[in-house]
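[Discussion] Sanity-checking designs against the backbone

I'm trying to build intuition for which residues belong where. Below is a structure token string of 74 positions. I'd appreciate it if someone posts a full sequence so I can compare it with mine line by line.
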């Protein structure tokens, strides 16, 4: 099944959030002079960001499921 432009946009949004989180984690892991409390804070924020990145994927999945169901009923 081909994704609609809206579904593609949701997936792109999610991937951008995941990429930003990944880059943030890479930056933190490469720093030896960073305080442990800053690492914990950054990891906590990264986890929250990943949870937010999940929302557009769930929306896109639900849109695809709805469209499949509508196609099956036709």
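Best answer:
Here's mine. Compare freely.
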């Amino acid at each position: 099944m081909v994704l609609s432009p809206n579904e593609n946009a949701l997936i792109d949004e999610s991937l951008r959030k995941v990429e930003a989180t990944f880059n943030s984690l890479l930056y933190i892991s490469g720093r030896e002079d960073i305080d442990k409390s800053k690492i914990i804070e950054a990891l906590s924020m990264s986890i929250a960001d990943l949870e937010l990145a999940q929302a557009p994927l769930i929306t896109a999945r639900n849109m695809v499921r709805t469209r499949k169901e509508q196609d099956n009923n036709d």
